[in-house]
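Cross-check.
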Amino acid sequence: MSDAGSGAGSEGFPYRLIATDLDGTLLRTDDTVSQRTREALAAATAAGAAHIVVTGRAVPWTRHVLDDLGYDGLAVCGQGAQVYHAGEHRLLTSVTLDRQLAGVALAKIEAETGPLYLAASRDGLDGDVLVGPGYEVGGDLPAVPFTDASDLWSAPLNKIYIQHPTLSDDELAETARQTAGGFVTVTMAGAGVVELLPLGLSKATGLSLAARRLGLRAADTIAFGDMPNDIPMFGWAARGVAMANAHAELKAVADEVTSANDEDGIAVVLERLLG
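Predicted model, tokenized:
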């Protein structure tokens, strides 16, 4: 990765696109966005940059955050599966998981690990997140419990979430990649959040689609994140900035490490770039 030059903003801000992850990055631990960060983003957009939220959350788990921000631009949701127009409350693109391949992938993983705890994100603007026995959902995000496994497969899905009673997130993600990586993309998006996605899908996929709609390129982009699911986005963007609270795998590929999400890490970098 290298710094953007030709993509400089018209008012002197060196990037035309700011891509931010949500959890652990833009959002503080209490799920709010600080006033300092709001003001830094407003100043950067006033200087000619566009801001795109790029999150693992599907649209139904993201919309309330965007509405609270007064955010009316494009957002990349569902780990790259969905490009969402926040101002119009409209889904522009959506990629779904091949349910047959996902079933094979799950069987292969469980043959190695034993039974998993499962959840799944249904496609669409109002797609439910289905949660099976034993699966723990962080925070107070809405979810619909299921007990019959057939319910999991009864409608199109963007992703499947997996948890294991004893394996760590890193161990589970690595085992899933080794056993099922030819059928699905495996990523880790946060504590207790290991996901099975359509093969080849990543945040970079969705971000490149959204950027193209804005007439912007990778060379125009600075990206902020905190987890391994942000690695493809950092690989695509001209500059990748990891939060101080980021996973070691992301810090290893970042161009810079800023302050933690609870210490306005995004604002620290944007204020410096704004001069």
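Confidence is low (pLDDT under 50) at residues 1-10. The chain has ten helices and 14 strands. Passed to J.P. for a second look.
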